[in-house]
Amino acid sequence: MTMRSFLSVRRSLALAAVAMVGAAACSGGSEEAAITTPVETTASEVTTTTAVEVTTTTAVEATTTTLAPAIIRQPLTGEPLASEADFVERPAMAVKIDNHPGARRNHSGLAVADIVFEEKVEGSLTRFAAVLHTQDADPLGPIRSGREQDVALLSSFNEPLFAWSGGNPGVTALVRSSSLVDIGAPSYPGSYYRGPGSGPHNLYSDSDSLYSLTPEGHPGAPPAQYGYLDDGQVFAGAPGRNVSFSIGSIDIEWTWSDEEQRYERSQEGEAHVDKTYGRIGAENVVLLGVDYRQSSIDQNAPEAITVGSGLVSVFSNGEYLSGTWERELATSPFTLTVGGEQVIQLTPGQTWVELVEVSTPGEVPAFEVS
User: Fold this and answer.
1) 227, 165 contact by CB (below 8 A)
2) Domains of the chain
3) pLDDT tens-digit map of 269-289
């Protein structure tokens, strides 16, 4: 098989995977086979089929009605696509972004990431794993080190590129033995540079430079991580225009903007602004209640447990729903449901996932809503 043929097959499989996720989301997870079922016939009716494909034949004329095909979407934003040619085939790229007070004024790239995870690290601070796919960023940073918890958190993105400043020997060995593709500064120092700020809060790169490090034969685009609403559908729940909570010592608030039709982020009482791309916001904010344990590699670092289950609250369209998150394997996306059955479908757009610590596994993440 030639490389061109291989790429064509790989692209078709990725598109099919996204289309199947969209179809499952539309049907609430149920499947119905298109099987022709014999029925008693009359002079004017011969056969009928299920709702997937309906065919009616009469003695006078034959007509066929078929439902619209499944929507093709960008996998990490749920954006509906007009054409398969618009599908972004490159890998997902996770970039570790510093949230130390010395780094915040120089944040760049967070505002254009498809999905951002916020996790607790040592010192009661937080750090971000910004997952890029559909948009580029220049610069990206400040970039900092990884943690053991990143491997489980990010393994569902189909061998994501992992941009980081490095880590201790144990974390480095873990990353390099995982499905994450190490494109960090220790391995590729020429793709990173020192910029605004003081060390160690001043390491940067850009998406073009980092994507150029994609290894030959990479499997390509990530699978969809969540289900999304269709055109004409609106996220509905309890009123939730403002939500505030803490991760470690960081006080966080998301406020619904009628003008922007999205939530805008503040931390420590100040608007959170991306130096290059403006006010940081998201169509969806997911508060994931997780247990933090001591890392088995670094006794000073917490480890968020993101495989298993817990409680979740999802904010979108100025409203929210509370339910359950489940994840059987690190390579599986999170499943978000109400009552363990109805899948919570997000508004197409950017999503922030806040790993909110709970004192007891299965406890509701603490937040205030108004």
Assistant:
1) no
2) 93-211 (3.50.90.10), 238-369 (3.50.90.10)
3) 999 999 999 999 999 999 999
